[in-house]
Amino acid sequence: MSLRLALALVLLAAPAAYSQQRGATSAQATVERAARVYAKIRTLRATFSQTITNPLTRSTATSRGEILQRVPGELSVRFTEPAGDRIVSDGKALWVYLPSSTPGQVIKTHSDPGGGPAPDIVSWFLNDPTRRYAMADGGAAVVDGHATRVVHLVPRDSTLPFTKATVWVDDDDALLRQVETTDFNGVVRRITILTLVPNAAVDPRAFEFRVPKGVRVVDHM
pTM for the whole thing? Predict the structure, then answer.
């Protein structure tokens, strides 16, 4: 190979290598900024829509609801579609009550993939993200009127319940506006945040779960 041809190949390759490095750096900076913002949030109130696509059954399910959270460990997810479904963590136990799909029972457990009583999805993405993920910039996108930066995540942490994820981080306030995960069976879960109020006033009673009359408790503790 001539020296001139070798130099030409280096010059052609350099922009692509630089672009990949710049993209990774940009993605990391975006996620780390979001992590700093969420570290200051003690309570949260949000409404959401969720779509779950299962390639094995060729089905898609949608739901909506409200999330209340109080750090650490307290969580309330109240579904409006399907109405009556609830997920509650009182800081000691996690209650999963889904009468729309499994009527007559509630599951009670202590553990979750994030290591605590509450299935804190945000912590999966923003707790020590540089160590836990390889990141790639996915460009700009608009989510429900919010300008966001898209970041693709591939877990380095095998305890996480998905093989890949994408987060949409708000350009203005660095809050997550949308998240998407793909699990080990190829099931894709996309959660879009419709409204979000950080450090909102929350009623402590929202984190209490009372077993409905006639409902059996399946204890996994």
Answer: 0.81
